Amino acid sequence: MKTAVIFYSLDGNCALVAEEIKSQLNADLIRLNVKNEKNRGRLSKLIWSFGLMFSQKNPQLLPYTFDPSVYDLIVIGAPVWGGSPASPVRTFICDTAINGKKIALFVCHAGGMEKSLDKFKALLAGNEITGEKDFKNPLKRGSEEIKSQVADWVKGFKG
Prior knowledge:
With 159 residues, this protein is of the alpha/beta class. The chain contains 6 helices and 6 strands.
């Protein structure tokens, strides 16, 4: 089964999870990067992300290559910002015609995931959601725990 893992990561949490999923599913990995994203400190990142969230603006992304027709399974991951998937992932979904695909979703959060997976699924109407998972504080939990969590999760949709 040809798989792509597409993700955005501000602090490295989603990157850790995405890399592990890539490894376990032998998937292609596509990291989304925001155009003009600056190297910010923790407080500046927080202000920037909340500004995007409250303005409901979809930030421009740096160019990437992705053709959904090539993949049998698409795994999409995002940090949770204010109870929703991060706006750079929303940009990706709005800019990419994904329809009729098998999709697995994951979010990374520090304890406030609220209804983020429901909002994520709503953005991808017209697709089959084959799995969803939240990862709380992946960097704090460490790679071995994340490896185990990912292994348990991907059993449900491994080809």
